[in-house]
Write a structure and sequence with these properties.
- By secondary structure, the chain is mainly α.
- The chain has one helix and no strands.
């Protein structure tokens, strides 16, 4: 989405989830 991070296992498993959660909490 907004954060175009490399398609890595970490990003796919925890990166995106963490980013989404952080964004939701920040907003």
């Amino acid at each position: 989405m907004m954060f175009k991070r490399p398609k890595s296992a970490f990003s796919n498993q925890r990166g995106f989830t963490l980013v989404e959660l952080l964004m939701v909490i920040a907003i």
